[in-house]
């Protein structure tokens, strides 16, 4: 198996992990709040990655100026994106915000093309477009009403989250190539822990964190574990395979949610959703198989 194929496999790992993680992020932010949930998920990531990252942090800051600049920008963009992302999940419905987050794919792809000159061929572009169309069809349970969609809770926030997260995705991939995926993840987690911790301290909410964790321990862990697995797998995937393709495949976690609903909850889906599911699955499989 080539390194690119390992990257594609890791993109699917990220897809599966985010499929689980987003569900628990939504539950967590509604129980403890946006900033609190973000603090917990970043703290877990920092503690989890510390044994693997502490030796590589100093060499990066000493002798890799380009990596330092990219990771600093990544920290800021990812933090702002995460706040929008968590808030969209808090006030909106998964069925509304998830299709919007597909905009992450073209944003990441365009940044990869214009900044680092990464190219994909026309057939891959076509497959990504078909994949996004399939995901949109799967997400729309009751057809599409543009007026209702625009004014639905969380729509505008989710749109800004998608733009920012598309930038963060690219920066994570670029930062992982300039340094390494573990260190890039670790430093962003440390940054987010510091910023959210200071904010919670100055708003007199820091003292409630222990109580929040004690009361909602299972949900917070079920949120943090798959989210960190997803980000690490995602970063490794982008260091090995084209960023646009990795982002497109990892965004396909909507497929997992639908399949789980069919298998476990015996849910029924409409004809356009079935068509979208088949289109997305075929596009993702072909895209993964032809990428080398």
Summarize this entry quickly.
This protein is mainly α. Helices cover about 85% and strands about 0% of the residues. The protein starts with a helix and ends with a helix.
Tell me what you see in this structure.
By secondary structure, the protein is an all-alpha fold. It has one domain. It is built from 14 helices and no strands. Helix 5 (104-116) packs antiparallel against helix 12. The mean pLDDT is 85.
The overall pLDDT average reads 85
Number of helices: 14
Low-pLDDT windows of residues: none
- What is the molecular shape? globular
State the assembly state of the protein chains: single chain
Question: Can you write the helix and strand succession as a string?
Answer: HHHHHHHHHHHHHH
Summed up, the domain count is: 1
User: Helix content range of the residues, please?
Assistant: over 70%
Rg estimate, integer Å: 19 Å
- Helix/strand-derived category reads mainly alpha
Total E-strand runs = 0
In terms of DSSP E residues, the strand content is: under 5%
Described by strand count, sense and barrel closure, the largest sheet is: none
First-to-last CA distance: 10 Å
